[in-house]
Specification:
By secondary structure, the protein is an alpha+beta fold. The protein has a domain of about 90 residues. Helices cover about 15% and strands about 20% of the residues. It contains two helices and six strands. The chain has a six-stranded mixed β-sheet with strand order 1-2-5-3-4-6, with helices on both faces. β1 and β2 form a beta hairpin. The longest helix has 12 residues. It is globular and about 30 Å long. The chain starts with about 40 loop residues before the first strand and ends in an 8-residue tail after the last strand.
Length: about 140
């Protein structure tokens, strides 16, 4: 039985998991048998991707770009240094392999959602890329 105050609302039951042993309540050293998947952060209609080379964030950003050819993203070097780009910005075109999510990318198909996000999270004005002109 679980301790109060939760014990009266929940009870531990034996799970039938197709032969996979599930942890006991007291098994503090338990680790999942499959890797956990980190989902993109979603905040006010925008998705955030930030991670190392080969990370789920990098793959997620590449997938987002394919699914949103008319979308926008904010490249966030810091809270005071944010720049809005079109998804198709040539600034992402590199000859060599580069991790595009080493710098945080906040993405949306709605430019105004990104501008609102930037106003909530930034400490300076949102700049607009001169290459891709996301204002137009």
């Amino acid at each position: 039985m679980l301790s109060e105050p939760w014990g009266e609302h929940f009870k531990l039951v034996e799970a039938k998991s197709g032969g996979v042993a599930l942890p006991d309540a007291g098994d503090a050293g338990w680790k999942p048998s499959v890797p956990l998947v980190l989902l993109p952060e979603i905040d006010g209609g925008v998705e955030t991707f930030h991670g190392a080379p080969g990370s789920a964030a990098e793959r997620g950003f590449a997938r987002w770009r394919r699914k949103n050819p008319d979308g926008f993203y904010v490249s966030c070097r810091s809270a005071g240094d944010m720049m809005l780009h079109k998804q198709s910005c040539s600034g992402l075109d590199f000859d060599a392999a580069v991790c595009l999510t080493a710098t945080k990318k906040v993405c949306s198909s709605d430019r105004q959602a990104l501008e609102a996000w930037s106003a909530r999270h930034g400490t300076g004005p949102l700049r607009f890329c001169k290459r891709c002109s996301p204002k137009t």
